[in-house]
Design goal:
Strands 3-2-1-4-5-6-7 form a seven-stranded parallel β-sheet, sandwiched between helices. The protein contains nine helices and seven strands; from the N terminus they run βαβαβαβαβααβαααβ. Helix 1 packs across helix 9, helix 3 packs parallel to helix 4 and helix 4 runs parallel beside helix 6. The protein has about 250 residues and is of the alpha/beta class. It starts with 9 loop residues before the first strand and ends in a 7-residue tail after the last strand. It has a single domain, classed as NAD(P)-binding Rossmann-like Domain (Rossmann fold, 3-Layer(aba) Sandwich), CATH 3.40.50.720. The longest helix has 29 residues.
Length: about 250
């Protein structure tokens, strides 16, 4: 049975229409939170709205590019007008180089910039937009989606690992700054999770990673969502500045 630890809370999820973001949004809604979700893809957002509202939840959604500063600021401002405040921010949007992935020596700076922008800068951008209200209210939760790649640095992930490692440093720095104001900031590092992106990149290196999971199975987005719900709730009030691996035991900190 899903607990209802987030009744009366407002949760914002970036990149929330698919994969881990979608599973986390649905879990937050199931625990009682009203949602504000932004994603580049409008059709999956519409599907998410149907599912949330069918379960009795509330969703304020917008299809927009999270690398567009004006779009981000407009979305945050409109969501705050809609709900009055944002209590939980899940910085989930991000991706790797995908079809442009290469060795570092064959890589292109334009790809580095894109990967760092979509992962690290969006995390900083949304936090900068949402956190002032949290600090003013002396209450809030910021949850940043990093990756185990930030710690292990697989070959070919130079840009993605750099961006996700930057999220870990950012998390620690702002956790220290916000802690006296009742705002916690934590990072989650998923391991291999069966998402659309993983399915598209099922090469030998991915198959090797999947075979190395001690628990014996590949995670699903729904395996990440409970940690997000915990950190978003009052039960997570004494957890801040942490890097939390959710990876089936593949790597430890």
């Amino acid at each position: 049975m899903t607990m209802e630890r987030l009744q009366g809370r407002i949760a914002m999820v970036t990149g929330g229409a698919n994969g881990i973001g979608r599973a986390c949004a649905l879990r937050l809604a199931a625990e009682g939170a009203a949602l504000a979700v932004i994603d580049l893809e409008p059709a999956p957002l519409d599907d998410l709205r149907v599912e949330v509202e069918a379960a009795g939840g509330t969703l304020f959604a917008r299809a927009a590019d999270c690398t567009d500063l004006d779009a981000v600021l407009g979305f945050v401002a409109d969501a705050e007008r809609e709900y009055g405040r944002i209590d939980v921010l899940l910085n989930n949007v991000g991706q790797g180089a995908r079809e442009r992935k290469s060795s570092f020596l064959d890589s292109d700076e334009a790809v580095w910039r894109f990967v760092i922008e979509i992962n690290l800068f969006t995390t900083m951008r949304f936090t900068r937009a949402v956190a002032p209200g949290m600090v003013a209210r002396n209450s809030g939760r910021v949850i940043n989606m990093s990756s185990e790649s930030a710690v292990i640095g697989p070959a070919g992930s130079h840009d993605y690992s750099a961006a996700k490692a930057g999220i870990l440093g950012f998390t620690k720095a702002v956790a220290s700054e916000f802690a006296p104001h009742g705002v916690t900031v934590n990072a989650i590092c998923p391991g291999p999770v069966m998402t659309r992106a993983l399915e598209r990149s099922a090469g030998d290196h991915v198959k090797k990673a999947m075979a190395s999971i001690p628990v014996g199975f590949v995670g699903t987005p729904e395996d990440i969502a409970p940690m997000v719900a915990l950190l978003a709730s009052d039960e997570g009030r004494f957890i801040t500045g942490q890097t939390i691996m959710v990876n089936g035991g593949r790597w430890w900190l």
